[in-house]
Amino acid sequence: MKSIAVFNNKGGVGKTTLLCNLAAHLASRHNKKVLVIDADPQCNATQSLFDDETVEAFYSRGKFTVYSVVQPLSRGKGFSKVLRPERSSNFGIDLLVGDPELGLTEDLLATDWVQGTAGDVRGLRTTLLFSHLLELCEEYDFVFFDMGPSLGSINRAVLLSCDYFITPMSLDIFSLKAIENISKSLRTWKLRYQRGLDAIVDPKEELEVGDPRWRLSFGGYVTQQYTFKRDSDGQPRPVKAFERIMRRVPEVIKENLLDESMPDMADEDLHLGSIPTLHSLVPLSQSSRKPIFELSGSDGVVGAHFSKVREFDQIIGKISTKLLSNLEGSR
Ligand SMILES: Nc1ncnc2c1ncn2[C@@H]1O[C@H](COP(=O)(O)OP(=O)(O)O)[C@@H](O)[C@H]1O
Ligand SMILES: [Mg+2]
Question: What domains can you pick out in the chain, each with its CATH number?
Fold first, then answer.
């Protein structure tokens, strides 16, 4: 099993859209068993994969969500031993349903991080909560985390437990800045976490996880030609000067996100692909709860949009293949 965080602390860069389609593509075309964990308290992945009635039923009393795993922790009751994901037949993947209440754990995780990095075992155990969760996911080939747009403590805990992260980014100057911030945060977190681990005599035994080491590697980035920004009149607008920014991206990525685990990766390997503006295909996919590459006339696709569906199928296909190859080549 390999765990992959889809991460950028910038919002609206297409993380959730990419994640749902990439996960579905790996499942349907590469025959992989895929679990998505919705670790964004905004629950957009959950909403993309299931219709509104089903989502409402998820939150009826007693439903198992990502918070069901986290909640016992906040009561000092240890980790959940079970995982009850939901099956999305349209996407061919399982989902650990998101939960707005997950947001309540930001503070708890922040406090426990401070204590954990000072060598407190209980603080480190809480910090490793997603590692415990991942130990329940061994039957899967891939586990993807959808994440909110922040450098907060939930996202830190996710990244600390994952094998890889991939980064969708829009082509504007703020995305380049975001990459630098991600890099700075990762470096600081890694150092502080290591200090916490070093203070413990037997980390495996005391933290009760198979591999508590920091092992996060960069799996590549996806550029988005679309940016979810709005003009003053409320209309979404594409970002200007794509090409100028695009030329700077490989260097910024290499300077900031590569570490010793992937020393030989070329620019073309790291750049998993570029997703064009998909216009009405994105809302059609959202309303029919189907992957974009499987949309058809019965979902409302008309005219020239059929060729856009085929084009997207090829693009997401290349992204899947490159990602698989990067993950295989990394260790
Ligand atoms: N390639 C695309 N073309 C057009 N719209 C897109 C594209 N990718 C995402 N969107 C839209 O942009 C918005 C943000 O995308 P989303 O995947 O939710 O980003 P994030 O998870 O990074 O916040 C959504 O409204 C989505 O429908
Ligand atoms: Mg999202």
Answer: 2-329 (3.40.50.300)
